[in-house]
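Materials and Methods. Structural model of Carbamoyl-phosphate synthase large subunit. The 327-residue sequence of Carbamoyl-phosphate synthase large subunit from Deinococcus reticulitermitis was retrieved and submitted for structure prediction as follows.
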Amino acid sequence: MTCSDGPLLLTSAGRRVSLLRLWQRAAAVRHRAVYTTDLDSLAPAVLLVDRSFPLPRVKDPAYLPELLRQVETLRLSLIIPTIDTELPVLARSAGQLRAAGACPLISEEAFIDLCNDKWAFGRAFAEDGFDTAAAWLPEEALDLGDALPRDLFIKPRDGSASQHAYALTRSELSETIPRVPNAVVQERLRGDEITIDALLDFSGQLLHYVPRRRIRTVGGESIEGETIDDAPFAPWLQGVLSAAGRRGARGPLTAQAFLTERGPVLTEINPRFGGGYPLGYAAGAHYPEWLLALAVGEAVQPRLGDYVRGLYMTRHYEETFTTRRPW
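The predicted structure was written out as C-alpha cells:
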C-alpha cells in the first residue's frame, strides 16, 4: 500500500489530543497537515487543528458518501480511525477510499469482524494454539449450571469501553444475562492484566510492541500505567501478534491479556490505537513516524524488544478555550 502525500485525517478525534499531537509531530517533519472530524464541534481535537469538519454518525447511510466527498475535496491521503464502530465500515469501503485517493489505516475486514466478536475471537486464537479465556454463550452457560467456574465475567460479544461488563458469581448469572446485550460469559481470570501496543506493517509482519500494565482506568481507558519487561512472555507475545498478522491484522493493534499462574491468557485485540498508546510512544513506539514511512513505500525494520521498561504515565485534564464553534 502506497499513499499520496496529502493531509491526514484523524476520525472521531474527540478528546484524543495526545494521539493527535503525536501525529502532528510526525506529519510536520514531512510538511504535512493533520485534520480531524467529530460529531461534537467543541471536541478538543476539533479545536486544535487548522481544519476540521463533521461527519454523520457512522451507521448513517450518509457517512461514507460524505467521507468520500471530503477525501476528494481535501485530497486526504491517510485515514486514522480511533473507535471500534468505525472499523467495519472503513474496512468494507477500503477499496472506494483508495480509489478516491486515501488509504485507511485499517486491518482486513475478516480480522476486524473477528475482533468484534469476543466469543469467536477466543475460539479462533485457541485453534491457533494460544490460551484464551474459557467462554460460553448464555444458553450454554445456563445449561452447564454448577459445572461452570464459580467466578465469572460477562460482557457483550461486540462491546467496547467496558460497557455492560460485569464480574459476577455463578449464582448471579441468570439474573445478569438479561442486562447484557448480545452477551458472552467468560471465566474470571486471576493475575495481572496487561495491554500491548503493537504495530504490524501492511503485509502483516510484526514490527514492534510495548507491553504495559494499566494501574488505573476510567471508562476502559488507561489514565495511569507502567511499561513492563517482556522477557517472561516474549515468545508467546510475538507468536500471538504474528498469528494476528496471518489472520489479517495490519497497522496498529491494542491487545489485552492476563498473566496467570497457568501462563499468559489472551482476552482480546482491538485493531486500532488504544487510549493508553501515548505511554507506548513515550517508551519508543513511534508508530506515526513509522506508518508515514510505510505509507510512502519506505522500509521499516522490526524493532522487537526495543522500548523503555519501567516507564510510568499519569494523565490530567487540560482546558481549551474558543469564542467560535467550528460548526
